[in-house]
Specification:
single chain; 169 residues; alpha+beta; Peptide Methionine Sulfoxide Reductase, Chain A; two-stranded antiparallel ribbon; 5 helices; peptide-methionine (S)-S-oxide reductase activity; EC 1.8.4.11; Met_Sox_Rdtase_MsrA_dom; oxidoreductase; Met_Sox_Rdtase_MsrA_sf
Length: 169
Amino acid sequence: MKSYKKAYIAGGCFWGMEDLFRVRPGILDTEVGYIGGENDNPTYKNHPGHAEGIELTYNPAETNFKEILDYFFRVHNPTTIDQQGNDKGSSYRSAIFFQNEEEKEIAKEVIKIVEDSNKWEGKVVTTLEPFAPFWVAEPEHQDYLVRIPNGYTCHFERFDTFLTEKTSS
């Protein structure tokens, strides 16, 4: 049996994040949902404090947490507080939900690399939040841009990797 891992991130509207991550090497599955909020069983219309997040299932033999975060910082703007594109509010915050101290330290390291690159204007405001229950969003939100290819997204690749061979291990 393979040993797969999961990562939890939020970077604005979950549709665009899912669409870009689904085709990344080593990503085996994506689910959009709600994380980091106040209520159990949140819904699109009732998710106070939750971010629109994404659960990534990945094969650590093909990618790693640092590479996932590198791509995360390339496809959304981590310098805007509670906003991505036209979407505003805490649901659209940039956040990394770490599951252990190793992930937290990797996240801090990648944030420093991103800031030191000066590719983004402004300071990275991505929050580091302890993992909280991930609630899968309603079926109509899963694979949204596959079903509606011209649907709304504000996510796209903006830069080449932030990582060098020295920083990617």
